[in-house]
Amino acid sequence: MTDAQFLFDSARQQYNDFAGGVERHFENVATQLKDWLPEQMRPRPPPPPRRLTPATYWNQVNRWVSDNTALSAGILAFVGTGAVLVFIQRTTHVKKRRARKSNGGARTEAVVLAGSPTSPLTTAIALDLERRGFIVYVVTSNTEDETHIRKQSRVDLLPFNLDVPNPGEAEGQMQRFHHFLSRHHHAFEGASSHRLTLAGVILVPDISSVAAGSILQLSPEAWSTALNAKVLHTITVAKYMLPLVTEFKSRILLLTPNVVSSLRPPYRAIESTVSSALGAFASSLSSELSLQGLHACHFKLGNIEIAGSKQKKDDSKRVRGTSIRKLHESIFDALHSSKPSRTWHVGRGSLIYELIGSWIPGGVVSWMMGLQQVPRNDDQQTPESDDSSSDRSITWEKV
Length: 399
Prior knowledge:
Elements: H1 3-36, H2 57-67, H3 69-94, E1 109-115, H4 120-131, E2 135-140, H5 143-150, E3 157-161, H6 167-182, E4 184-186, E5 193-195, E6 197-204, H7 220-248, E7 251-257, H8 259-263, H9 269-290, E8 295-301, E9 304-305, E10 322-323, H10 324-336, E11 343-346, H11 350-359, H12 362-370, H13 389-392, H14 394-397
Parallel strand pairs: 1-2, 1-6, 2-3, 6-7, 7-8, 8-11, 9-10
Antiparallel strand pairs: 4-5
Region (Disordered): 375-399
Organism: Aureobasidium pullulans EXF-150
Keywords: Membrane, Transmembrane, Transmembrane helix
């Protein structure tokens, strides 16, 4: 061993002894301090390590969503869409549909209703519009119609005598009605004046009362009567009302049954022809009014339940239709909406039978119609005048 090696080992040994002595000294001092300090001042031992809690339900859901992103997005979209639809439906249901009034509470919106005054559908529409705050004028042509309107005992449900076949007399009646709408009115003595406005003209031709039967058996008089009373009369009333509609920026609503005209079944030639003609007239009228920024709406009606109308004897087998409340709300929306639709499908079967008649081959539709018992009597058959247009669609609802 060299001298350098000896000195190095000796120095290392002395350092280790010194370090060991210092360590033992501090351990002795710590032990003495621990015995000297009171128990309250002693440092607390560190807390035990936390145990991992088992996965909760929420954590499991989060883990499943992370593993199934696409499926989770689909479920979320489905639930969200359903919630939005339910919210819209409830909002629409509770929406208050009332006509506008003046500052003094007087009625200011008038509606002209042209249809058979004794028809259950026309009467139901007139009474509902009057309840919603409109001044309703029902077009009449004889004393019987006026009496029927006045029997309803409604202050703001009034007959409007319009001599449609006599152009000179009808023009004078329209001028007087225009003057009545244009002048100032007072709800009561001392009240502030207000003016009326024409909210819309509603055309409700009673197509259900036309003759039924085979084309071979239908006489020219039956065709002439139906076309004059249903088509020409409706077009003429609309013509007389057009100046007022243009001046007051009103709406024209045309209501026609849609089931028979869509399927075009046998022994319903007149009804199908009348409905198709009125539908073509509604399209042309809507196009012309749109050039002036006005609107014409065609309501295609299916099976609608009218309270108080005559029902069939076998009520248990009759297919229930849409509540007439849906029609009332749609009419109000068409009168007050800023951009109403041109076509409205209201009533059970209105839209589906239009699709069937448009897309399914005629042979298949004829076969479907053959499943029903169609009257084949030699005499022409005319439906009862007090049946509503919705009752006429019940037979086709069973196809």
